[in-house]
Amino acid sequence: MNNLTPSQLALIAVSPLFVLVLGALWSDIKRHRVPNRLVFCGAGLGLLLNSVLPQGYGFISSLPGALGPWKALAGMGLGFAALLPLYMLRAMAAGDVKLISMIGAFLGPNAIIGTILMTFIVGGVLSVVVVLRKGTLGLLINNLRTILTGSFIKGAFLHQMPTIDAASVTAGKLPYGVVIALGTFIYIALERGGNMNFLKFF
Q1: How far apart are CA 94 and CA 98, in angstroms?
Q2: pTM above 0.85?
Q3: Fewest CB atoms less than 10 Å from the CB: which of 37, 61, 116, 167?
């Protein structure tokens, strides 16, 4: 394995990640869920590849190589912790949180931060596009007002955990597995192009 070129290392590690993320996307579109088997097996594979392949600065870096098991675990844990509050607020499904955690096992802590940020950007853009195409901008604003008011009342007056409850009439819905997949692929493309160096924390 030590004779592998950097490009071969990147291909070995990133190819299964792409397949897993595309599988999650397909399942979310068809069945509205991301299978536990897919994300758990994917997380295990990400940890394994980061443990046994030659060391480097991450599979999508300019010098591709494994991060080691601890950074892979850190990426997985950071992805889970970053999106757990959204799950607790009912703003995101558990499968989406586990999917980001699986991606973190492949990419490590630095890249999972960038992936999450890109996912939020893509999600915001696609939400606006869906709302504008459906002509439901007014409904979206009204739903946001209702959701935020309900959450404030729960927290301030009823001393309950604020939650983001679904509106009775939606302004447009997009499977979040699609957003995560697009955010991941765009981030990887930008990182491989050397355009995400400002997100180096670890």
Answers
A1: 6
A2: no
A3: 37
